[in-house]
Amino acid sequence: MNYYSTLPPLSPDYAGAGSVFFDYEGTILINGPSGCLANYAGYDEPRYFSKKSALLSSGFRDVRAIFGDEDFLIESLPSIEVLKNSKYLLLLSSPSAAVIGTDHSAIAQNVELELDIPVFSIETSGIYSYDVGAQKAYLALAERYLFNKSGEYGNKPAAHTNSLALIGLNPLDYWGIEQIDAIRAAFENTHEIVCTLGFGGSLEDVSKLSQVSQLIVCSISALELARKCNKEFGTDYVCGVPVGSYYSKHIDEFIAVAKKPDNEFLRPQKASHKVLIVGQQFWARSYRLALEQLDPHVDVSIASLFLCDQEYMRSQDKKLSNEGELRALIRDGFDVIIADPLIKKLVPKDLTFIEAVHMAVSSRLFANHKTAYVGAHGLDEYLGLVEEQRC
Amino acid sequence: MTCQKLPHIFQDKIAPKTFKITELPADFSKQSRLLNLGKDMCYYSPATGGYGIVRVVLMVPETQALFVSPMGCARHGVIASYYYKETRDRTNAYFIREEQLALGNHVDEAYSAGLEIIRDTRPKGLTFIYTCADDLLGTDFESLAEELEDETQVAVRVATMNPIRAETDRPPLVRAFETVYSYLTADSLEEDSSRRSHEDILNILGIYSNLDPESEIHKLLARAGYSLKHVCDYKDFESFLELKDSRLNLVMGDAATKAALNMKSQLGIDFLRLPLTLLSESIVKNYHQLEEALGISLDYKDIQDTEESTIKELLSSHPLEGLSMTIGSSNSYSSFELARLLVMWGAEVREIYSNAISKSDEMHLEWLKKHSPETLVLPPDARTALMLNERKLNADLALGLDAAYYSNAHKYVDLSFESPLYGFVGQRKLLQNILSPKEISSSFESLLSKSSLVV
Predict the structure, then answer these.
(1) CA-nearest residue of chain B to A86?
(2) A26 Cβ contact partners less than 8 Å away, ≥ 6 residues apart
(3) CB of B165 within 8 Å of any CB in chain A?
(4) Residue B403 Cα, gap to closest chain A Cα (Å)
(5) Is residue B357 part of a domain?
(6) Which residue of A has its CA nearest to B2?
(7) Do B164 and A33 touch (CB under 8 A)?
(8) Does residue B210 fall inside a structural domain?
(9) Minimum Cα–Cα distance from A29: chain B residue
């Protein structure tokens, strides 16, 4: 049953889609009552105060639900003052607008005729989690600026051998800013980071994806984009980010091990200890690789309440549907649990718990926690607690 | 790398929607009281907020709340509940899947979730909260509640968080107050001969806690044999039920008027509209109403004289003339009445941030038109309000953290939802707070994130 008593509702798809666009200096309109916008702006967008993009609500009301909503948006949107200096307009749907079947794609096409900026619509509903919305947003950007040869920026395939792009580097997956900096820092000495999708950068960056030799897929939401880039341009991709000092210093080794298919890793027959990592699949995968580099006998399982891709799962990994499944899994003989701090309440006190803030779970509650879970210091907490206990 | 502001949208200044107070109509009977109509786009300011539907329904002790909604709807309410330990363990959520919306079978699972909560936590009551999606689908939660109540013999109620109904006569907050007091139904206590009457209780509703304990109203009423009670005063459900025998309901916030009407028809409890106030004229009016309704004399004159004399001395030694102020609306008071009080004390009220004019605001609005015609009224949810806090410092002092944010004030007076100031003592304490305001010691981002505001 899809019932949560300990964990909060997870970040919804419209927040994920909005967060992909937020740094691109435009306007995001959530077609719904203002509370839906408040969910994203107030609880899932740590950059909100920076106002990189303007966030508006359509102020959806019952009358519009009954008589239809499209005309109101088509007529009103072109006159919104803030669009004058916006570089894009993004339309997102709330649950109420989705329930009545509002055709946001048609609205976007109509509004774009009146404006000289690109207008995007992403079909969100508030029913799915943030990564589903983010995935659609990455693909929508790529369709417009990368795969569409007549797109505004076009394709300029000219890959440098050590050039890469970090895609899916989204605050809902990695926050605070120290985590994002740590990921970038790990690559900066050895590679040219051409662009980043999800945090920072500009709309123009999307077209640069065709110019890089490697995509670093930081989160599951960017996997489909990476696969399409691979198909279109032959661009190589790696799923994960460096965790711990070893892989942060030896990036080539990280890339090599992260490329290895998950079904080729053997589970230790006699485990030194059992670890469960709960979180976004590609971060969790990276953390597992780091632990295995540290101790080949550690037995690590991954579980996620969000999207999971079978290709990157091992036999012991689990895609969870709800809190109850997570609660049961945690009691399955693990010594260490690594997860968002809110998940600690589900964990028996005798287990070692290591915090790794996942904003899509805990929103702003731990936004100021500084404990590193990626980059050179990403294993410090683990080493402090677990290795100390073993000694 | 830091998250730097890149205000591309400010290349051209966008004027925030602004009304001169003199331009606002005198009579709202033929036009909307909303200053930013639902016909327009809205901005969500990080300083926007109130008490939140979850906290309101969970004011009833020993009850649980169960959101039944798409994932996105309940997030802010539940996350906010982590800031209030007393509500976190009583807040639950059931997420509807897409196919369930089409089939409508989420109702069965919501029922099962409710049953599980009742079985696991043994509450005295359970409130289902449904949202816009089920509102539009016309899902019948009342029947669901009745059925679950029959099966478990635990009181089950229904509230909504459906802001699509914000401009109807039954918006979410009104419905939430109705839900809270619907637990006081006539059959909620088994008839018990030992049950004592509570004719001495005056039940406050429409605000979020009992009044400041230092307010003179408590002493005045105690002398006459009455005590003020609020649902939040009760730690257990059985005690809370004594409110059903209250002598009188005192409606201090308009949103609870329907709840009071319900209690009048179902429980026979009469009610008075007694707005939360710090203005002498309104305080006196409230006391007269109480005297008349209860047939008592409150003898407040001495306290009034003492407090007003103290206020006079304070104003004499610390005059407010020349002090520019702004007033927010994330509190339980009438912003227009507060403005009137401040103008009477000599302050210059530059701006009032309000999305609506309530009926009880009208008389203060008229007064302000005459005595403070330069005051501006700005609705913070207007689409152009995203520019509000991009303006230069616009006031010396703000009433409310939201007002401080909008006017970039460096000092503010906190107007808390909890234990609100009231009466002549409250008036004096407000002035003292104005004379010793809080400093904006860290960023607004940090202060607002930690504040108790919930949309």
Answers:
(1) B9
(2) A53, A54, A86, A87, A88, A89, A90, A117
(3) yes
(4) 16
(5) yes
(6) A177
(7) yes
(8) yes
(9) B41
Two tokens, residue B164: 């699509």
Strand segments, DSSP code E, in B79-213 are 91-95, 125-131, 155-161, 201-205
- Contact call for A2 and B43, based on CB within 8 A: no
pTM equals 0.94
Query: Is the CB of B82 less than 8 angstroms away from the CB of A365?
Result: yes
Residues B319-336 have pLDDT tens digits of 999 999 999 998 899 999
pLDDT band for A150, please (50, 70, 90 cuts).
low
Same domain for B151 and B72: yes
CB B455 to CB A76 under 8 A? no
Q: What is the mean pLDDT of residues A250-267?
A: 96
At B132-173, the pLDDT tens digits run 999 999 999 999 999 999 999 999 999 999 999 988 889 999
Clarify whether residues B286 and B406 are in a common domain: no
Interface predicted TM-score (ipTM):
0.93
B121, B146, B174: which is the final residue of a domain?
Answer: B174
Q: Which band of pLDDT confidence, cut at 50, 70 and 90, is reported for residue A156?
A: low
Q: How far is A10 from chain B (nearest CA, A)?
A: 6
CATH number at residue B167: 3.40.50.1980
- Cα B398 versus chain centre, distance: 19
- Domain with B253 in it: 189-294
Residues of B in contact with A63 (CB under 8 A): 38
Residue in chain A closest to B386 (alpha carbons) equals: A54
> Which tokens hold the place of B359?
């009926």
- Interchain pair B72, A58: CB under 8 A: no
Does residue B409 fall inside a structural domain? yes
CB A229 within 8 A of CB A237: yes
**Cis check: omega of the bond before A168, within 30 degrees of 0:** no
